[in-house]
Design goal:
2 domains; Rossmann fold; alpha/beta; 8 helices; seven-stranded parallel sheet
């Protein structure tokens, strides 16, 4: 399926690994000119080279923390205009809410709410002017199913969803869409590290914890990042102009609600 994205400029934040990298790869396959980002310059350059070799795409790598204004500006300056923005950032670690002090609270809100909003502010008017824009925000299944220990992540990402819900309706007339992808358990380094921490706390083998987690999913498996990347690429496609303000949960059937 031709997604109608050849030659479009796409920024994918936090994309040197995991779900962000999967999204970047699929957009490169669709013909986009990419700007990818990560904090570790060596890992980022390695990801950029891998994507270039696999797809032949033009890939610009901008290293740094996207909560910093100068990094945001460098991302946007890497291409002439921004047609696609994929907001992504690592979430706060598991912790009891009683241990979340003010500094940690503000850092979580900056990383998972304020920063993506700032990036949207920087690109949206140009998208409206050009009558094309796709913004995809990677949040979390915990927005719909809050989990104890992920309270800060859930709250900040839910805040982002609520903030941008009205914005999405205000620009839909200009073929600019804003949507949200909510990942469940995907086979990424973050998931595996979480299993390792839980295993150590319980005195179990990491594989035993992974098996328990897997069995709790109706699909009986973890998601493949490539599946997530394909969903992201479709929401960015020319054919997805009638999707906006939506939260697409991809969790193998864990969430049992109908809304």
């Amino acid at each position: 399926m031709d997604l109608g994205l050849r030659g479009r400029n796409a920024i994918v934040c936090a994309s040197s690994a995991g779900l962000g990298r999967a999204c970047a790869l699929e957009l490169a396959r669709a013909g986009c000119i990419l700007v990818i980002n990560g904090r570790d310059e060596a890992s980022l350059e390695g990801a950029a080279e891998d994507i270039r070799k696999e797809t032949g795409a033009t890939v610009h790598a901008v290293a740094g923390d996207i909560s910093m204004r100068e990094v945001q500006d460098a991302l946007i300056a890497a291409v002439q205009s921004v047609d696609i923005l994929v907001n992504n950032n690592g979430g706060p670690p598991f912790r009891d809410f009683r241990t979340v002090d003010r500094e940690a609270l503000l850092a979580g809100v900056v990383g998972n709410m304020a920063t993506p909003i700032e990036l949207v502010q920087k690109v949206i008017d140009g998208m409206v002017e050009r009558q094309f824009g796709r913004i995809v925000n990677i949040t979390s299944a915990s927005v719909k199913m809050p989990l104890s220990g992920l309270d800060l992540s859930s709250g900040a990402r839910a805040g982002l969803t609520g903030f941008l819900a009205g914005v999405a309706r205000s620009v839909a007339h200009a073929n600019v869409t804003i949507n949200f992808l909510l990942p469940g358990a995907f086979d990424t380094r973050r998931l595996r590290s979480g299993h390792q921490v839980k295993a150590e706390n319980l005195g179990l083998a990491a594989e035993a914890v992974a098996n328990q987690s897997r069995e709790a999913i109706p699909a009986k498996r973890f998601g493949d990042p490539s599946e997530f990347g394909a969903a992201c690429a479709f929401l960015c496609s020319a054919q997805a102009g009638y999707f906006t303000g939506q939260s697409l949960l991809i969790d193998g059937g864990v969430y049992s609600g109908i809304l």
